[in-house]
Write a structure and sequence with these properties.
It comes from Pigmentiphaga kullae. By secondary structure, the chain is α/β, with parallel strands linked by helices.
């Protein structure tokens, strides 16, 4: 039963800026979604939403920080599919994805692109596959740490082509992209929110997208499925959470503000320009996110355990 003061606090919520934690480095795909959502939530919520980046351990460091934050609605988590793969990858996870969080809702779904440094010696996806297979000993693939979306996609890609290469973990795919532009790392699977700009500016090579249909904002890129990896599909869903114990009136205010944000024309335009799909309002609810998290944990757990990949 919430005490009188917390009922009052819930009534006045939000009476000061809200922090949205992004468990990856600034400038990367998760950060781009968070900052766009934070900006679109400001008006409907009636308060500034400040994004705070805390990278490391594939996003589990920042996620753990929110799990331990006060349940008052002033600390939120913007995280993606890694929320559901971490329980299988991290045997000593510092939080329980179901018990330690209040789901607010699903926000956007983002496809990924297979990209390489600009001078990578392959001009098609087929040539890229052959080159990777033939030079696996000298190539390096970037990701944002075990449990990140780029890690998951890279893993699935390498097992699909039955090849292994050295992987280099970063605190996010923004720093990974910097290294790729500096030709310090060879290729990576990264979300269109981070890669679209570089692809359109012809700063990196792009070979395929991980959606089952071509992306309107990158029409020239074949899908992995049509380019040869039948059925290869990785979509990165993103959700918003509050810590367990956040009072329901506060969660309700966050759900309303989030749904208004997802319907904001500027937000929708920005997401569409970046190849991202905004979730329909019906999925921007605690029930939808809760159900999705659970079904994704069921889906990825056995696959990851079978592959015997552990972060700790
Ligand atoms: C990921 O690979 O999970 C994300 O791209 C990391 C990030 O947002 O930088």
């Amino acid at each position: 039963i919430a005490g009188p003061q917390s009922a009052g606090a819930a009534q006045d919520y939000p009476s000061r800026p809200v922090t949205m934690v992004v468990p990856f480095a600034a400038g990367g795909p998760t950060d781009i979604v968070a900052r766009s959502l934070a900006e679109a939530m400001r008006k409907p919520l009636g308060q500034t939403v400040v994004v705070e980046n805390l990278g490391g351990a594939g996003g589990t460091l920042g996620t753990g920080r929110v799990a331990r934050a006060a349940g008052d609605g002033y600390t939120l988590l913007l995280m993606h599919i890694g929320f559901s793969t971490a329980p299988a990858l991290y045997r000593k996870l510092q939080y329980d994805p179901i018990k330690d969080f209040e789901p607010v809702g699903l926000a956007v779904d983002v496809p990924m692109t297979m990209i390489a440094r600009h001078d990578f010696p392959a001009s098609s996806f087929g040539e890229f596959l052959s080159y990777v297979r033939a030079h696996k000993k000298t190539l390096s693939m970037a990701n944002a740490g075990i449990g990140s979306a780029s890690h998951l996609c890279g893993l699935l890609f390498l097992s699909a082509i039955d090849t292994d290469v050295q992987t280099i973990p970063y605190k996010g795919t923004a720093p990974a992209m910097n290294d790729m532009l500096g030709k310090q790392v060879d290729f990576m699977c990264d979300q269109t929110t981070n890669t679209s700009g570089q692809i359109k500016a012809d700063k990196v090579k792009a070979y395929a997208v991980t959606a089952m249909t071509r992306i309107a904002s990158l029409p020239q890129l074949p899908t992995m499925d049509e380019a040869g990896l039948k059925g290869f599909e990785v979509g990165i869903w993103h959700g918003l959470w509050a810590p367990k114990g956040t009072p329901k009136p506060v969660i309700d205010k966050l759900v309303n503000a989030m749904q208004a944000a997802l319907n904001d024309p500027a937000f929708k335009q920005r997401m569409s320009d970046l190849g991202a799909q905004v979730e329909p309002s019906g999925r921007a609810t605690p029930q939808a996110l809760d159900a999705h998290v659970k079904s994704e944990i069921q889906k990825w757990g056995p696959l990851i355990r079978k592959a015997g990949i552990y972060a700790d």
